Amino acid sequence: MSWDVIFNPETLAMYGQGLLTTLSLLLSCLLIGGVLALLGALALTGNNLILRKLVGACTYFIRGTPLLIQVYLIYYGLAQLEWIQARWDTIWPWTHFKEPFFCALLAFSLNTAGYTAEMLAGAIRETNPGEVEAARAMGMSRWQIMRRIVLPSALRRTLPPYSNEVVMMLHSTSLASTVPSLTDVTAVASRIYSDFYLPFEAYLAAAVIYLCVTFALIGFFRLMEKRFLGYLAPRKA
């Protein structure tokens, strides 16, 4: 094995740039997906039947198809339509579809939104009825109950499964390497492999990077769970 290439300053700089791209994709898709997931969860638990069915169909499609297919549908499908390409130099938001980063970000955001919306909707439905009844007895409106009682409780209880979703999204960002001109950690490893024919070293270095980021995320969410879910922990005798 030859590790000199991996520890070369230029190679390390490439991995660093790839890590920045990966983290940018992850954080951006979690932010956008989080907002979409909140709106989706409210729709899934709301009284509007049409909106509930529509959002449910979207989350069903997202959860029922591979993320790679969703990336291809957006970058090689939607972004390549003549109708969009005729407008992607002048008309917003179609101007963004010529950017590989945007296409990957859109696919990742919609994917994590679909899974997170269902998790949050489930937590909303499982809210203790006693809490809701107590809020109603105090004269709170439906939206006040949702904002002050149901959502804070549901968000806290969603933390453990959401931490798994975040880690899965980190690993899923490796699919960004399938989009041309987008250099994430996996794409850097593939480039080193093609240039120097060092598959083991290149991909092992990428695995170590993903592993370190995963440990950091797990540690962060454990602190969050300890902070916001400490009241659910068994009491010590």
Automatic annotation (TrEMBL):
One of its GO terms (biological process) is amino acid transport. It is a multi-pass membrane protein. Residues 19-221 form the ABC transmembrane type-1 domain. InterPro entries: AA_ABC_transptr_permease_3TM (IPR010065), ArtM/GltK/GlnP/TcyL/YhdX-like (IPR043429), MetI-like (IPR000515), MetI-like_sf (IPR035906). It holds the Pfam family BPD_transp_1. The chain crosses the membrane at residues 20-42, 54-78, 202-221. It is found in: Cell inner membrane; Cell membrane. GO terms for molecular function: transmembrane transporter activity. Keywords: Cell inner membrane, Cell membrane, Membrane, Transmembrane, Transmembrane helix, Transport. CDD domains: TM_PBP2 (cd06261). One of its GO terms (cellular component) is ATP-binding cassette (ABC) transporter complex. It comes from the Bacteria. PANTHER family: ARGININE ABC TRANSPORTER PERMEASE PROTEIN ARTM, MEMBRANE COMPONENT OF AMINO ACID ABC TRANSPORTER. Belongs to the binding-protein-dependent transport system permease family. HisMQ subfamily. This is ABC transporter permease subunit. It comes from Comamonas testosteroni. The lineage of its organism: Bacteria, Pseudomonadati, Pseudomonadota, Betaproteobacteria, Burkholderiales.
